[in-house]
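Closing statement on the FE2/S2 (inorganic) cluster sub-project.
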Amino acid sequence: MATKKTSSSHPAADAPKDPTKRDFLAMASGAVAVAGAAGAAWPLLDSLRPAADVLALSTTEVDLSKIPVGQSLTVMWRGKPVFVKHRTEEEIAAAKDVNISQLPDPETDDVRVKKPEWLVTVGVCTHLGCVPTGQGMTDNKGEFNGWFCPCHGSAYDTSGRIRKGPAPKNLVVPPYAFLNDTTIKIG
Ligand code: FES
C-alpha cells in the first residue's frame, strides 16, 4: 500500500532528527571530501548509488493469478496508480471492434496490450490528472464500459482509450514485461 508522505518547506524541519543519521551524513560528507582530495572517484560514485528501497520502488511485480476474469487490480508504481485489468472476451471484442480513425488518440487495441486478456495502464486521467473510476465491480465505468473520470467527464473504453470528454490522450501504458504466465513486472 502506498504510504502518505508529508514534508515541510522549512529546511530545518527536513533535517534528520535521529543523531545516528546525522552522524552518517557527516561521515558521508567527510568521505566525499576525502575522495575529492585523493582524486579517487569510487567513494563518490558509491555514495550516489540509489538506496535499495528506492530501487525497489522503481519496479512493481504483480501476481496475475489473484485477479479473476472481469476484475481489475490497482497497484502503485513510482507513486502512481496502475490499473491491471483481466478483460473478458466481451471487453476484448469491444476493444477491437472500433474504427480507430474516429478516436481522439487513434491506437489499435493490439498495440496497447501484450496479451489480449491483460490491459495494463497508468490510472491517471490525461486531462488534469484525476484517478478515474471503474476499478470496482460496481463503479461507474462510463459510456464505453472502461473507466470514467468524474472530474470533467472523460470516458475511456475497454482498451483505456479516450472516447469522450476533455482528456486528450489515452490512458498511458507503462513499460512492463511478463516474467512468466502469471507475473508481470512494471517498470
Ligand atoms: S481530470 Fe479527468 S476529465 Fe478532467
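The domain at 60-186 is CATH 2.102.10.10 (Rieske Iron-sulfur Protein). With this model delivered, the sub-project is considered complete and its resources will be redirected to Aim 3.
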